[in-house]
Design goal:
Layout lengths: L1 H44 L3 H37 L2 H7 L4 H25 L1 H16 L8 E10 L2 E12 L4 E10 L5 E12 L4 E11 L6 E12 L5 H7 L8 H13 L5 H28 L7 H27 L5 H24 L1
Antiparallel strand pairs: 1-2, 2-3, 3-4, 4-5, 5-6
Helix pairs in contact: 1-2, 1-4, 2-4, 2-5, 2-8, 2-9, 4-8, 7-8, 8-9, 8-10, 9-10
Length: about 375
């Protein structure tokens, strides 16, 4: 019964400090970034109060997402630093409670925060980012959606089954053309049965016309082409106009992991570079999992004799966070540059943090 009371006590202390950290770090991010953007939107575009409130609310989830690992580290350092400085850790050990048992509530909470952050990053953040972009483009900037974009993907889906897929390497807003087009038609079994490639397609006001392309009818056996024909012009069977096409496209930050995985697969079939999307995909896991990593690091560091004040714990958390995010930035650069595989490059900060955490815990357990 004594251990259960102790677990609740440590868990409550860590939780309260964690919530304080979310508020503190969120305030820093909002004050140093969001408010400056809002001020710019007001002065440059004359944004209305309603639009400003929407921007502020829809921008919160992405800010809070980044504060989870920071707050977990701060909570671990401050809580165990205070317990150590007030000799409560010494009293627990004198009662025969091991370091692992003392640290367990904080580490378990780090795991819970990581799992909740993954779900938050999957179901809340992409939706909020899409809403943020729509308010910015269509309510504040008055944008008509006519802008150039790379990697245009359009899908016709009926009853959960994909019927047609169109990929364009580029949409050129100046000429209203789609460049490097591939169209695939699927049968009831989800197999590709018809393919059309074209150099470009231009918008004539009511339809898209492809130029300089090839038609392929795919045989059901072994996926071989049974009929091929060249064409100079061909109507592209999509109903969306340029404005609708651009508006349907999403930035990587607006996609869920399932959507990212699907888009990566589509782009790989077109031999497009997917390093950026793959880095974003793996980062949806690595950043939330940093909460667990920081708990493993923060608990043993909080027990150090020099960690005897809140200011020292806060300073230590800032230093660790700086090195972690510097390593994360470097990993992203290595992934997008193709120097390392995206999975290894993006996981690099967590691997280093995990090794450091186990080393510190092992040393503190002695």
């Amino acid at each position: 019964m004594h251990l259960r009371i102790l677990d609740k006590y440590i868990f409550r202390e860590v939780l309260l400090t964690f919530l304080f950290g979310i508020c503190a770090f969120s305030a820093v991010f909002i004050g140093s970034g969001t408010l400056f953007k809002i001020a710019k939107y007001i002065t440059d575009y004359g944004a209305s109060l309603q639009a400003v409130v929407k921007i502020f609310i829809f921008g919160l989830p992405s800010v809070i997402m980044w504060t989870f690992p920071m707050s977990m580290l701060l909570a671990s350092l401050l809580t165990f630093g205070r317990l150590s400085s007030s000799s409560e850790i010494t009293a627990m050990k004198s009662c025969g409670i091991s370091f692992g048992r003392i640290a367990a509530p904080a580490i378990i909470m780090g795991l819970i925060v990581s799992l909740c952050a993954i779900a938050f990053n999957e179901y809340v953040v992409p939706w909020a980012n899409t809403a943020y972009r729509n308010v910015l483009y269509y309510e504040i900037q008055g944008n008509n959606g006519m802008k150039s974009q790379e990697h245009i993907i359009l899908k016709d889906i009926e009853k959960g089954q994909i019927q047609r897929l169109v990929y364009a390497r580029l949409y050129d807003a100046d000429t209203q053309t789609l460049q490097g087009i591939t169209l695939q038609d699927f049968d009831a079994d989800g197999q590709v049965r018809h393919v059309e490639n074209a150099e470009y397609a231009e918008w004539s006001g009511n339809e898209w016309t492809m130029h300089n392309g090839m038609l392929y009818d795919i045989a059901s056996e072994e996926g071989k082409s049974e009929h091929t024909m060249r064409f100079s012009t061909q109507v592209l069977p999509i109903r969306a106009n340029p404005k609708q096409i651009v508006r349907e496209q999403k930035d990587p930050e607006e996609l869920t992991m399932k959507e990212l995985k699907a888009q990566i697969a589509i782009m790989k079939t077109q031999y497009a570079n997917t390093n950026k999307l793959e880095a974003e995909y793996y980062q949806r896991i690595t950043v939330p999992m940093a909460s667990l990593i920081f708990a493993l690091i923060g608990v043993p560091l909080g027990l150090q004799p020099t960690r005897n004040s809140s200011s020292a714990g806060f300073a230590m958390s800032v230093i660790i966070i700086f090195f972690y995010y510097a390593l994360m930035t470097m990993g992203n650069a290595l992934a997008r540059g193709g120097i390392l595989t995206p999975m290894l490059a993006v996981w690099l900060p967590n691997i280093v943090g995990l090794i450091a955490g186990f080393f510190l815990i092992r040393r503190a357990s002695r």
